[in-house]
Amino acid sequence: MRPTTNPNIAAPPIFSLFSLCLALSCSFFALRFIDRRSTNSISMAEKHFKYIALGGGVSGGYAAREFAKQGVQPGELAIISKEAVAPYERPALSKAYLFPEGTARLPGFHVCVGSGGERLVPDWYKEKGIELILSTEIVKADLSSKSLTSASGEIFKYDNLVIATGSTVIKLSDFGVQGADAKNIFYLREIDDADKLVEAIKTKKNGKVVLVGGGYIGLELSAAMRVNDLDVTMVYPEPWCMPRLFTADIAKFYEGYYTNKGVKIIKGTVAAGFSSHDNGEVKEVQLKDGRVLAADIVVVGVGGRPLTALFKGQVAEEKGGIKTDGFFKTSVPDVYAVGDVATFPLKLYGELRRVEHVDHARKSAEQAVKAIKASEEGKAVEEYDYLPYFYSRAFDLSWQFYGDNVGDAVLFGDNDPASSPHKFGSYWIKDGKVVGAFLESGTPEENKAIAKVARVQPPADSLEQLSKEGLTFASKI
């Protein structure tokens, strides 16, 4: 039986069917697009915190501990760090981390063990309700809208911000030094840098190492490299090592001691270029004075720069850092800056300074948090009254310095590199007062005594008498 047809119903034109299909298709893709936009908007939704500490270094970790002490509530605080691990004691990287045996490893040196406190492992932050946001680089800061934007587009809003971004290393490539991008040229700032250097030490056993720079990194790492039985040469342009702190008399001891330990020292010149093997690894270091040094590993330690670029033009700056008051408040309400990036009033000397050292990183973070909480509660907190403090450990040496290294310096004790137990020190005298004190191989009691000298600033009538008295002078204060 043939199907019947209705002559009153016309067959649909082809273009009508095409239009219908196109409309349905567009509707489907539109729905998919809307769904995708909706999903993206959810994944990139803003996060809001009462407090954000930007930076996961020493200052960030100590700020977290102080917030917890001050009773921060779960969900109120976030620590944002571009590193992949919870805050740790950075000085360990240039010391025990590189030793061949008994090396320091995480979680052993998370903050706050450097000051004798509890070790803040990742679970500690969870227990306190503090959000630890790792592997997150902030690329934009808008202080007027109180927002931070990450490289992946996440937006973090805050009520109070603590800038704890620290410093970054100065690289030779910044100055256009030829070949400075060769493999096995290292800088030490973060734990990833240390891991790469440890791997190179294992790979280049009995190899040649060139340390570029004669400051903290040069002195501490040249010692660590010698402990690993590597052939070490240290190169720096100044007339003696650690010139920002050491006098010629102090440096004489360390240069002699390091030489006796097998470290070769070349002064008065700089690295002008590098040549590489076919595999891209560094081969030689060309010095400005024409000498060429063979190198399997190069470590560069020529200083650092505070990481303030995110805030340029938004906040007052001075002396290379973000200007703060004695509570670490910046020129922008509800924004604080601590550690390496802060230029603050050094009350003891009545001037503004920026201090790059772990001791200040810890104490400034604690001060800022105390100030934030005191402000909320309508309470007062003492202004920051910092005594500058620096220290170092290398080989079997350990020195501490307190105060200011200005004025006339007077040496006491025996600074002969061959002597034992090589205990000696120095005082600095300005306007008839002792304003600074340095001591190598001091006991805890002796170190406390020189710290008290620097704080009290007692009068010194005779440099010669001060030299003769030495530590006896400090013990009487």
TrEMBL record:
PROSITE patterns in the cross-refs: PROKAR_LIPOPROTEIN
Q: What does the record give as cofactor? A: FAD
Classification via InterPro entries? FAD-oxidoreductase/Apoptosis, FAD/NAD-bd_sf, FAD/NAD-binding_dom, FAD/NAD-linked_Rdtase_dimer_sf, MDHAR3-like_C
Q: Which UniProt keywords apply?
A: FAD, Flavoprotein, Membrane, NAD, NADP, Oxidoreductase, Redox-active center, Transmembrane, Transmembrane helix
Q: Which positions fall inside the Monodehydroascorbate reductase 3-like C-terminal domain?
A: 387-474
- Pfam families named among the record's database cross-references: MDHAR3-like_C (PF21791), Pyr_redox_2 (PF07992)
Q: What class of enzyme is it?
A: oxidoreductase
As its record notes, the protein acts as a catalyst of: 2 monodehydro-L-ascorbate radical + NADH + H(+) = 2 L-ascorbate + NAD(+)
Q: A GO molecular function for this record? A: monodehydroascorbate reductase (NADH) activity
Q: Which EC number(s) are documented for this chain?
A: 1.6.5.4
Q: Where are the transmembrane segments?
A: 14-34
Cellular component, GO, one term: cytoplasm
**Occurrences of domain FAD/NAD(P)-binding (ranges):** 50-365
Q: Which family does it belong to?
A: Belongs to the FAD-dependent oxidoreductase family.
This chain's function reads: Catalyzes the conversion of monodehydroascorbate to ascorbate, oxidizing NADH in the process.
- What's the protein called, per UniProt? monodehydroascorbate reductase (NADH)
Origin species, per record, is Mesembryanthemum crystallinum
